[in-house]
Amino acid sequence: MPNLGTTEIIIIALVILVLFGSKKLPDAARSFGRSLRIFKAETKGLRDDDVTSSAAPAAAAPTAPAAAPVAPLPIEGRPAATPGTSVNGSAPVDAERR
Predict the structure, then answer these.
(1) What gap in Å lies between CA 51 and CA 44, rounded to an integer?
(2) Residues with Cβ < 8 Å from 57, sequence gap 6 or more?
(3) Which of 4, 45, 67, 73 is spaced 20 to 30 Å from 86 by Cα?
(4) What is the C-alpha to C-alpha distance for residues 5 and 1, in angstroms, rounded to an integer?
């Protein structure tokens, strides 16, 4: 891959300026900076987690058992929805037609 020279960088900057416009560039750069800052913090957190987990493998916290799925409660005055029935008034879709 060839190195980028000064003229190539200027051309790329001009293309970006034309595409986004001068009013949106500061906002785009600000949001890009925030995204990079968040990404850096998350990767640092992952590295810290790796260091602490490898330092004390016997002190791992036990995980709680997974909770059973809970069926939604029916709304007063309406029957509970069953599989294959329409919820919003549209026709139900057959599983065979998918």
Answers:
(1) 11
(2) none
(3) 67
(4) 12
